Amino acid sequence: MPTEDAQGRSRPSGGAATGALLLCRAAPAAVAPTAQLLRDPMLLAEAGEGWSVLVPEGGPWRHGGEPVDRVLTGWATALAVAATWPVLALWWDTDRAGYTLAAGFRRPVGYVWLANGTAAGEDEAMRTFAARLGLDPVLDVQALEQLTRPDASADARARLRGLLAVLTRAGVALPPGLDPGAAADRLREAALRRHGVRELDRHGLRETLRGELDAVERAALAPCLPWSATPQARALGAAQLTTGLSLALWGLRRHRGGWAAVGALLLAHGALGLTYGITHPRD
To answer: Shortest CA distance to 61 belongs to which of 9, 105, 8?
Structure first.
């Protein structure tokens, strides 16, 4: 049975079977710089043509006591806000399983199943999910809606596997061993067996930012981008700093680490844009 904290928030009843994956619709090389800013140890691997998968170590829910769904929603939102590609978070614990899809600044969409497979979401979420990923509006939507209907033979993990089966038609191909329902340690062990897997941790943050700046100097970027050193970029950087600070403080006060991570990411991008404008003034 789930437990509750002092504020009455639901928490997983155990961590052994808790795990999560982050699917990004971009190649690993594009995902790595942004994922590094989450400042949580993760493994990054290819997950099909045009897709990558992030396998988190799981510290916030294993040692910090935060619900896995809340953490993953915050991470997915942070990644999607900072990038141009959608992010799909898959999560599960001993009581529930579900997904959250984040894309840009739009409100994330998600769905939840109880451990026995009982649907606990709205059907409209599945249609929105399909539309944002460009899935077939007839065949794929029908397959997704089937996951919301009663099925005595399908538990929550089976529902997630059904979701992934639909996504194979969009190019998703998870590496062997990255199965919904596995604990975080087993997921990491499976990912480490993959050729070309990349380890991301907080110690590489400085190198990541330096690499982004070097890449910027070689690219022709639009004037509105934070590091283009234009008046528009400085205004955007200031707005990101203001929004990020407010969101980070709100997340910390409410003990919502995922949203605090979103604020921290906006702070980092805003600071990067303003710093670049000072150190690399336009002629």
So the answer is: 9
CA distance 231 to 233: 5
Q: Which pLDDT score is estimated for 6?
A: 39
Mean pLDDT, residues 79-104 taken together: 93
- Identify whether the C-beta of residue 88 lies closer than 8 Å to the C-beta of residue 31: no
- How many whole angstroms separate alpha carbon 167 and alpha carbon 225? 32
3-state SS, residue 61: helix
Residues forming a β-bridge with 119? 113
- Nearest-angstrom CA–CA distance, 63 and 57: 11
What is d(CA 185, CA 179) in angstroms, rounded to the nearest whole number? 12
pTM above 0.85, yes or no: no
Question: In the Cβ-directed half-sphere of 89, how many Cα atoms lie within 13 Å?
Answer: 29
| Identity of the residue numbered 183 | A
Higher pLDDT, 245 or 182: 182
Which helix (H) or strand (E) element contains residue 53? strand 52-56
Structure tokens at 213: 């700046």
Rounded-to-integer distance, Cα 260 and Cα 37, Å: 12
CA dist 74 → 77, 112, 150, 171, 235 (Å): 5, 16, 30, 25, 25
The alpha-carbon radius of gyration of the chain (Å, integer) is 19
CA-closest candidate to residue 156, choices 119, 113, 125, 110: 113
Beta carbons within 10 angstroms of residue 222's beta carbon:
9
Higher confidence at residue 245 or residue 158?
Answer: 158
